[in-house]
Amino acid sequence: MVTRASRVSRGLGAPPGTTTRGRLLLAAAAAVPLALAAGCASSPPARALSAAVTAARGGGFPLTPGPGRQTLSETGSTLLYPLFRTWAVAYHADHSQVTIPTGATGSGAGIAGASAGTVDIGASDAYLSSGSLVQNPRLLNIPLAISAQQVYYNLPSLSAGTHLKLDAQVLAEMYQGRITRWNDPAIANLNPQVRLPGTSVVPLHRSDSSGDTFLFTSYLSAKDTGWSNAYGYGTSVHWPSIAGRPGLGRKGNPAMVAGCHQRPGCIAYVGLSYAQQARGLGEAQLQNRAGNYELPSDASIPAAVAPFVSSTPPNETISMIDGPAAQGYPIVNYEYAVVSAKQPTAARARDLRAFLHWVITSGQSSRYLDDFGSGPLPPSIPGFQPLSASVVALSDAQIAEIH
Amino acid sequence: MATTVMTRKAPAPASAPARLRTLLIVLVTGCLAWGVVAGWTVSQHAAAASDVVGTSEPLSLDARQMYRSLSDADITATTAFLSGVAEPLATRQRYAADISGAAADLAALKAASAQPQAASLSAIAAGLPVYTDYVARAQTWNQAEYQSPGASFMQDASEEMHLVLLPAARSVYAQEGARLTASSAQATGLPWIIVVLVLAMAIGFLLLRTQRWVSRRTHRLVNYGLLGATVALVIGAVWLVAAYGVARADLSRGVGHGSAPAETLAQADISAAQARGDEVLNLISRSGDTSFEQDFAKVRHELGPGSGSLLSTAAASSSGEPGARWVAAAGRDARTWYGVNQHLYSLDLAANYAKETQLVVQSAPGSSAPEFSSLERDLGRAITADQAIFSDSATAGRDAFGGLDGGVIVVALLMAAGCAWGLSRRLAEYR
After folding, report:
1. Is the C or the N end of chain A the one with fewer CB within 10 Å?
2. Residue B96 belongs to what H/E stretch?
3. Mutate to test the interface with B, among A10, A111, A130, A241 (most CBs of B within 10 A)
4. Are residues A18 and A73 in the same domain?
5. Over the stretch A246-296, which tens digit does the pLDDT of each residue have?
């Protein structure tokens, strides 16, 4: 089996691996069951995968950075930024020779920087597009954590603790300007117990190219044929123009949250890591494939990811939007580090491998995933979720390709 | 040379019988040696010409066919995925035929290919099941109406195709093309044929000198044995030169008007298929901002028509040949297709995926799919026409060597026999 990661080290069109790294990837890849339908229920063959990881470590996987001073720059996803900054600070505390400056510039800028070599790690909410890979086949996307996207609304008249139920059809109608008021019968039908105000709907969207837009429109496209046929999904989409509602675009997650606070009647999709800043806004329950309405939580996010763990391919490019889990939250995703497999120096490669390996092992502790930004999250707000062992093994196999 | 030998073997004043005996040995040995060298040289050229017709050309066709099958499988699978949940039976059958065709071509190439292709062929052998597995997963998710995971598996599949399989198949094709050119060059190469002709002239010179010496010593005007050997030598040399000249002319025409333009057109076909694959994949893979527009601009420049482009180069080599009109048609198709593509990318920039998808997938005139099909069809016709020229010329070139290897050996034996008979009769007169 030739994986993207293995072909990076050998060059395009090279034969399948005979190197240690190649064998490691083969082991990891072979450990992922091929049968998709069965894969939804089967558990990953953990022993084979941990053997692959052990092989990786035995094959010169650095567990600590080198003694020399090193700067590993990161930029990209605003969603991952608070967590990445926390990791960077903690890692520097343990290994003072390594400094990791971080930046919240958007996933697109992260990928472009990693591709051009102007930044060591590009953070992205979405996996690499084929266009980026064809342009630079040496790029890897390595999951670092699991995240989810929350849909917020600003309806002050609703009591705290009310979580409106929304489905993709209603959201699509709102974003197309067909549902213009919150007491529309379509919303009322989903929420018979709630007294809805007649406030105008203000659907905010990201004006920059964004992984969040990719996730949100993927959910709309998966569930609503009309949306799929008319607008589709992507990091940018041709948003419908809504009469009398100009200026609905916002750049970055912080601006989406701030915009929603300012505009009663707003609805906005925002990465989970801004839950603290979004406090006071309403949090919608989203309808999943089974017809259940779910909030993102420490239970519903891992439940949504579980059916995809065993079928995650060796290059870890996979969409988990609107999966089959009955109790799963429908908009979940891997947060990716985009790095080039070919680094300018051996020392840089070694330190990158050590840091990324630390992120996907020690960095998965709840003291980082639940405690980024201004302190531990309250129990009602879910944090980032840790990667499962088999995905860690796949990520380690990709990390081993960095040289 | 003969004088030197005679001087060394028979110190002056040499007796006439001794000199005759020496001449007999030298001439018989020389004729037989010439026969061996000429026979070997002819067999080398004939084998190379047969290799062109029987091995290199079919393998080159297999390599091109494998690339086309892989590329068509990718375009068929991605287009069907974009078309919706229910894939038409015809589409599924076309995809299955492409995959089994590619596997069969791969097996033929693996069985017959030389070492340089082994790495690329192994990469294809390893990557093909990975690709089909991703496609199967994409179809399974999609049929269960899990569109988003389905799309990511289709992206995985297409990336395997674009980053592993197609570059390897392209490399196999290039290597097989180089092998075909090398075989043609070997069939018409000069060095050994010149050695054979120089040797023939040397033997001819020796025969004439011997004839003159014998007629002076014996006062007989003609030695019929030596005359027969000389005539046989002239016939052999003329046959050799004529066959070689005909083969060289045929194979040169085959390369210049057949395989070279076919190779150029095949490159054009590969570039066009790659650009069409990019168009479709661009609609499935939307997790980033990088479109394939830059690649397409590059392909457009390479493909032409335009100065130095593949289509213009092919048009120049096909001028006056049956393929010329298809090359001209391909140039017109390419221009129309570029127009559609330009429109596609303006829709892509505006993130107007709905219209973009329609324009990529649908089969109505003016959409990308039928325009690309026209281009592919006309390129295919032009390639077939050029390949027919190559095949006919290469076969004629190979046939020109027919019977020559046996012929030169018979000629050499006749020459040796003539020398032996003519000189031994004179020698007998001294007893």
Report:
1. C
2. helix B89-112
3. A130
4. yes
5. 779 999 899 999 999 999 999 999 999 898 899 999 999 999 999 999 999
B358 Cα to chain A: minimum distance (Å): 9
Phi-psi category of A280—alpha, beta or left, where left has phi over 0 and alpha has psi -120 to 50?
left
- B2 pLDDT higher than 80: no
- Token pair 């709102």 is at which residue? A174
pLDDT tens digits along A72-124: 999 999 899 999 999 999 999 999 999 999 999 888 889 989 989 999 999 99
**Pairwise CB contact (< 8 Å): B162 & A313:** no
Domain boundary among A301, A325, A358: A301
Enumerate the residues of chain B whose CB falls inside 8 A of the CB of residue A112.
289
One-letter identity of residue B72: D
pLDDT at B14 over 80: no
Instruction: Using alpha carbons, list the distances in angstroms from residue B186 to B62, B197, B236, B258.
Output: 22, 18, 22, 17
CA B120 – CA B175 distance, rounded (Å): 10
**Residue A5 neighbours by CB distance under 10 Å:** 28
Rounded to the nearest 10°, the torsion over CA B333, B336, B340, B341 is 60
Give the best residue of B162, B171, B286 to mutate against chain A (max A CB count within 10 A): B286
Is the CB of residue B383 less than 8 Å away from at least one CB of chain A?
Answer: no
Instruction: Report yes or no on A343 lying in a domain.
Output: yes
3-state SS, A235-303, equals: CCCCCCCCCCCCCCEECCHHHHHHHHHHCCCEEEEEEHHHCCCCECEEECEEECCCCCEECCCCCHHHH
8 Å CB contact of B120 and A234: no
pLDDT for residue A209 is more than 90: no
Going by C-alpha positions, the residue among B64, B313, B45, B49 that lies closest to residue B176 is B64
ipTM attached to this prediction: 0.85
CA A91 – CA B192 distance, rounded (Å): 72
d(CA B89, CA A109): 43
- Interface touch B146/A289, C-beta < 8 Å: yes
Is A307 within the bounds of a domain? no
Report the number of distinct structural domains present in chain A: 2
Which of A46-50, A181-185, B40-44, B213-217 is least confident? A46-50
Beta carbons of A130 and B160 less than 8 Å apart: no
Write the residue in B126, B148, B164 that is nearest to A321 by C-beta.
B148
A171 and A136: one domain? no
Give the torsion through C-alpha atoms of B204, B205, B208, B214, to 10 deg.
-120
| B168:A13 CB<8 A | yes
Which domain covers residue A97, as residue numbers?
4-140+333-399
CB contact under 8 A, A15 and B146: no
User: Are residue A200 and residue A182 in the same domain, yes or no?
Assistant: yes
CA B84 to chain centre: 42
Partner residue opposite B167 with nearest CB, options A12, A317, A322: A12
